[in-house]
Amino acid sequence: MRSAMSLSVDHPPAKDIRHKLIIGLDIPSVEEARSVIRRIGDAGAFYKIGYQLAYAGGFDLVRELVDDGKKVFLDLKLHDIGNTVEEGVRSISRLGATFLTVHAYPQTMRAAVAGKAGSSLKILAVTVLTSYDDQDLIEAGYAAGSTADLVAKRAGQAREIGIDGIVCAAPEARRMRGILGREQLIVTPGIRPSGSPAGDQKRILTPADAIHAGADHLVVGRPIIGATDPRAAAQAIMDEISAASEA
Questions:
Q1: Are 187 and 122 contacting, i.e. CB atoms less than 8 angstroms apart?
Q2: Which phi and psi angles does 135 have, rounded to 5°?
Q3: Pairing of strands 46-49, 122-126
Q4: How many whole angstroms separate alpha carbon 231 and alpha carbon 139?
């Protein structure tokens, strides 16, 4: 059932540069998310829905956004036994989302590729969370190597398995582009405009630096949705992305 919410002023063309900016709806309720979306207006063309909103009714919002011509990134980071992942991805593929994340474990990635077969859904493999650094990996039992080395290993596995792209921290994007080539997508969270607090992110870059490093899409949440004027904040980041893309 369609919502009465009007989400857009005009619909961006398929290759609109606004699709490079994915606005993270890290918001506790669908009504609050709708309010933010209305305030952003046509400055937003691509939205991320993660755990917080998805499990608070956000799957219906996915359909609303898709019906309204927006793109949706479902950041669910699936990881389970192969059959469970495959069937879960198959169900999710019917929602019309553009991207879905899974954790970059080989069995999980293979199952996700099988589950999305015949759909337009693109699978992104999450390499190492941007809130992790080398010490966090040691605490998790990864005793050898660095965060960057583990990201590179998982990116190589994702490429071999046929995943559509990866999620990695912006500082790793340049190295990952060398591993992936131009065929696979690089999506980078942990983006912070100059002067913004890092929050719980440990591996961050500005929007321009991330684009120059080879990222295809930038995920920005709190600096936009927490702004006094979310539309202006989104437009400022989009202007920086546009300038960097043309440089």
A1: no
A2: -65, -40
A3: unpaired
A4: 40
Alpha carbon distance 133, 66 (integer Å): 35
Q: Rounded to an integer, what distance in angstroms lies between the CA atom of residue 130 and that of residue 215?
A: 15
As given in the structure block, the two tokens for residue 9 are 């002023």
Q: Which of 71, 75, 164, 202 is catalytic?
A: 75
Averaged pLDDT, 39-48: 96
Catalytic residue at 133? no
Q: What is the 3-state secondary structure (H, E, C) of 121-134?
A: CEEEEECCCCCCCH
Residue 26 known to bind ligand: yes
Sign of the CA dihedral running 135, 137, 143, 146: negative
**pLDDT given for residue 6 in this prediction:** 46
Confidence of residue 198 (pLDDT cuts 50, 70, 90): very low
Domains of the chain, each with CATH number or no CATH: 17-238 (3.20.20.70)
Q: Catalytic: 239?
A: no
Please tell me whether the overall predicted TM-score, pTM, comes out greater than 0.70 for this model. Answer: yes
As to burial, measured by CB atoms within 10 angstroms (0-12 exposed, 13-18 middle, 19+ buried), residue 45 is buried
> What does the pLDDT read at residue 19?
95
